[in-house]
Amino acid sequence: MSGTQSLIDALHALGDEALSAVSDASGPGELETVRVRYLGRKEGRISGVLRRVGEIPAEDRPALGAEANRVKAALEEALDARAGEFAGTGSGNEAGPAAPVRDRTGSSPAGDGGQGPGTRRGVLDLTLPGRTTFPGGRHPITLVVDELWEIFRGMGFTRARGPEAETEWYNFEALNTPLDHPAADEQDTLYLKGGNLLRSHTSPVQVRVMQDHEPPIRILAPGMVYRRDTYDPTHAPAFLQLEGLVVDEGISFVDLKATLAEFARRYWGPGTQIRFRPSFFPFTEPSAEVDVKRVYTDEDGVERETDWLEIMGAGMVDPAVFEACGIDPERYTGFAFGMGPGRIGMLKYGIPDIRAFFENDVRFLSQFADR
Ligand code: DAH
Predict the structure, then answer these.
(1) Are 228 and 190 in contact (CB under 8 A)?
(2) Eight-class DSSP state of 237
(3) d(CA 313, ligand 1 centre) in Å
């Protein structure tokens, strides 16, 4: 052990000697000389001590190695710090090209800009401009979905979700839409390898929920949908939909109307009116397009009303859909609706072009940050 101890002592002595050589160095060239003298692989004095490792018992060798690494690391750190000082103060005025200075971080020692003592590593410069942080915010469509969700949650709805890559069966056939039906053409979408497709609406979530759950069912399913559409002010090939489904014994059109009227009044205000226009969807019978008209008093106390705005499709679940999902159509009835929160957001915030939602322009998005 005494041989071991004397080697360790020799290491420490070398380390101390090297550290004072570092602080005495007057420029980068001298620093490099110190580095080679102590840390150099062949001639370096620390390596010289390590070569004597054969003199000590094998079980002590790892301890010596560890000690040598500690001394080397301390020395490298001191060399780097001193090199940083030279780079920072510009006092590396020795003759000849500046010697390369090692830097374990891989960046050049002057990489901090070399603008003066204040930029040295680890020194705080209070004169530098501050870094702004952008806290971000919810996307305007997310804001609308969250508001809509709060209202439906208050009426006992649960959130549901389904996959964006769907089979033809879920997207069309289970929803009473044969693949050669014109309604399937209207919702043409992207097909994936293996025959699946990107869902063209959120209605397949209805099917998945009904397969997995016994009525009573009351769900709301937001999600992205995809269509073969041009990208213009009123269309996007990918957009968000919000699907609703209610199934129980004794559900009638009255429930559909009351639920949607209550929703509209909570979202747009107590004076809001709704109207149903007959329509067609393969998965509902009867089907309707639902419009709202806002009736309100403006800031000047004047009574105002908007035009009718179409906000969603809706209807009573077709018995064929219940059958596809394994639900008894003799026992249960239900209603469904599907709306586009993007469209609702455009109306609410007066956004004329749907593409604003997708272009990630911070000037547009930041307007919604605090709402
Ligand atoms: N899936 C329809 C579409 O994307 C929207 C829709 C209409 C959904 C009526 C429904 C519904 O649930 O009952 O055009």
Answers:
(1) yes
(2) S
(3) 5
In this structure, is residue 164 part of a structural domain? yes
Tell whether 80 and 222 lie within a shared domain.
no
Sheet with 217-226, side-by-side order of all strands: 158-159, 217-226, 238-248, 333-339, 309-317, 284-293, 273-281
**How does pLDDT run along the chain (371 residues), one tens digit per residue?**
467 888 888 888 888 888 888 888 888 888 888 888 888 888 888 888 878 888 888 888 888 888 888 888 888 888 888 888 888 754 444 444 444 444 444 344 444 444 444 455 677 888 888 887 777 889 999 999 999 999 999 999 999 999 999 999 999 999 999 988 887 888 889 999 998 999 999 999 999 999 999 999 999 999 999 999 889 988 899 999 999 999 999 999 999 999 999 999 999 999 999 999 999 999 999 999 999 998 888 899 999 898 898 999 999 999 999 999 999 999 999 999 999 999 898 888 889 999 999 999 988 998 887 65
Residues 87 and 234 in one domain: no
Distance 5 CA to ligand 1 centre (A): 83
Domain of residue 61: give its range.
2-124
- Residue ID of nearest Cα to ligand 1 atom 7: 313
Pocket of ligand 1 (CB under 6 A): 201, 203, 243, 281, 284, 313-315, 336-338
Task: Mark whether 306 and 338 lie in a shared domain.
Answer: yes
Residue 164 has a CB neighbour count (10 Å cut-off) of 15
One domain for residues 202 and 114: no
Ligand 1 atom with the shortest distance to the CA of 186: 14
